[in-house]
Amino acid sequence: TELIQAVNIDMNPSATSTDIARRTVIHYGYEFNYKTRSVDLEKPLPLMPDKLRMVCSRLRNESISSEEPDQITLNVYRPGQGIAPHVDTHSAFEDPLISLSLMSDTIMDFRHPDGQEVSVFLPRRSLAVLSGASRYGWTHGIRERKSDVVDGEIRPRGTRVSLTLRKTRCRPCHCDFKELCDTWQADPQSSGLMLGRNLEEKHVWEFYDNIHSQFSNTRHTPWPKVVDFVNSLPSYCTVADCGAGNGRYSTQRDDLMCFASDTCFGFAKECRDKGVLSCQADVLTPPLRKGAFDAVMCIAVLHHISTYERRLQAVKSLCSLLNAGGRLCLHAWACKQSSESRRVFQGQDVMVPWVSRATNSDSMSLDVTAKDPKEKPSKNGQEMSSNRAEMMNTHHSEPKTNTDEKKRNYWQRGDPSSAIHRRFCHLFVEGELEDLISKSGFKMQLQESCFDHSNWHVVAMKLE
After folding, report:
1. In terms of DSSP bridges, do strands 277-280 and 349-356 run parallel, antiparallel, or are they unpaired?
2. How far apart are CA 222 and CA 439, in angstroms?
3. Which of 122, 133, 250, 427 has a 20 to 30 Å separation from 411 between CA atoms?
4. Could you read off the pLDDT of 383-408 as tens digits, one per residue?
5. Which residues pair with 148 in a beta bridge?
6. Is 21 exposed, middle or buried (0-12, 13-18, 19+ CB in 10 A)?
7. pTM for this entry
8. pLDDT > 70: what percent of the chain?
C-alpha cells in the first residue's frame, strides 16, 4: 500500500502516464524507449520517490542484486491485459532483472528458443528474480486473459501493479545466449568484439587483479615520449587517462584536470589514493562524456586487447572522448624490440608469464610466444593464431643475457614461494596503430609516429 501511495497512481483507466498496448506505464530513473528498445543514459529522469529508492537499496543490501537498480518501470495491468513474450534488451540492462508483483496474482510464461515453455505463478507481494538463462536465454510474457487456473482452481485477475527493477548497462552485452542477444545480432562483426573477451578476463584482468601491487612497484620510470606528450599539454586542460595503471602519467603535472580509469580495481584505487579522480572501467566502453576531453592517453593498454575488432572498438571509443582539436596519445608494445631489450618475440600474439615471489622485490617476468615459432606477424594485426587454445601451451623465448638465463632456470625448476601468472599481449607492427586511427570513423590528423624503447608511439589530433 505504501508503495502504491508513493508512486501516486490513479487507478482510473482514463488516467495514464504512458499507454503501451493499453496498459499504464511509468518510468523512474531512466526512460526505456520502446521504439529503439534502449535507454539514453545521458537523459536521467527526475529523482524517483524515496520509497522506491529504499526498495532498490534493500535489494542490494540483501544481496538480491550485486548493484543497486537505477531504472524502474511500473506497469498497471487491468483484468484481460498482458504483455507479449519478450526479453529485456541485453545491452540496456545488467543481470538480474527483478519484478515485484503488487495487488494481484498472475502467471508469467517463459519460452525457450527451442520451443520449451514453462509457466510460473506470481502471487501478489512476491519478488521474481530473473538471472542467467532466465534473464538472457528465455522470453517471458503474460497472456491476455481475465483469469488463471492455479492448482485446478480458477482465479479471477484483479488490477495488478508490476515494478520491474533493473541496473542500466554502460557496455555491450557479453552473454552466451546469442539467439536473443541484441549485441550479437546488431552487427555482423559483433562476434569479433566478443571473441577473446574470456581470454582477456583470465589473462589480463585477473592477472592485474592478482599482482597489481607487485606490478606497480616495478613501474616507476615513465616512457620518454609519453612524458613529452604530457608536458606539451596546456595548463588546466581536461585529460582522460584510460588504462592508467598506477597513475604515473595522471600525477605527472598538478595543473592538469586528469580523470583516470582502469579495469583493475586496485589500480583505480591507487590513482584515487594519489588524488586523481578515477573509476574502474573497460577502455572499450569508458563511462566518460563524449567530446569532453582536450587529451586522451592510452598507454600500454591496446597490446592487451586480443582481437582486431576489439582493438578497433577501443580506438573508436577513445577518439569519441576528444573535443575538436583534442589530441590522442597511443603507446603500445612493439613486435620489433630494441637492441637493449632482453625479449625475443616469435609472433604477434604471445603469453608473457610473471613470476611473483613472496616479496615484491623478487618479482620477475618471463616472455613466451605463441606455440608455432614460425608464426609470422600478421598484416595490420588482423589475424591471430588459428587455435587460441594453443596459446596456453607456450614455450620460452631464447634468453639474450645471463639474467634471462637465470630467470629461465628459475622458471623451469619452480619454487614453492612463487606463483606464475600469464598475461596476454598482442605485439604491434609498424603502421598498425595508425591504421586503427584511420578506421576509427573520426577525422584524425596524425601528428607524431615513432619507435620508443620497444614501443610504437602515435599522437593524432581530432579535427572535428
Report:
1. unpaired
2. 29
3. 427
4. 333 333 333 333 333 334 444 444 44
5. 155
6. exposed
7. 0.54
8. 78
Cell of 213: 601491487
pLDDT score at 302: 95
Q: What is the mean pLDDT of the chain?
A: 80
- Helical residues (DSSP H) of 292-415, grouped into ranges: 308-320, 402-413
The strand pair at 71-77 and 395-396 is best described as unpaired
Contact call for residues 377 and 348 (beta carbons, < 8 A): yes
Going by C-beta distance under 8 Å and a sequence separation of 6 or more, which residues neighbour residue 16? 24
All cell numbers assigned to 363: 618479482
Contacts of 287 (CB under 8 A, 6+ apart): 170, 261, 279, 281
CA distance 348 to 334: 9
Note the maximum CA span of the chain.
84
Q: End-to-end distance of the chain based on CA atoms, in angstroms?
A: 54
Residue 372 confidence (pLDDT) above 50: no
pLDDT at 128 over 60: yes
- Report pLDDT for 6: 63
- Residue 346 and residue 370 in contact, taking contact as beta carbons nearer than 8 Å: yes
Between 129 and 184, residue with greater pLDDT: 129
Q: For residue 16, what pLDDT band results from cuts at 50, 70 and 90?
A: very low
Contacts of 351 (CB under 8 A, 6+ apart): 203, 368, 369, 370, 391, 392, 394, 422, 423, 424, 425
Q: What confidence score (pLDDT) does residue 9 get? A: 56
Q: Which of 32, 30, 124 is nearest to 69 (CA)?
A: 30
What is the per-residue burial (b if ≥16 Cβ within 10 Å, else e) of 238-272? Answer: bbbbbbbbbbbbbbbeeebebbbbbbbebbbebbe
pLDDT, mean of residues 295-309: 93
> Any long-range contacts for 356-359 (C-beta under 8 Å, 24+ apart)?
356/211, 356/214, 356/418, 356/419, 356/420, 356/421, 357/415, 357/417, 357/418, 358/417, 358/418
Q: Assess contact for 108 and 123: CB atoms under 8 A.
A: no
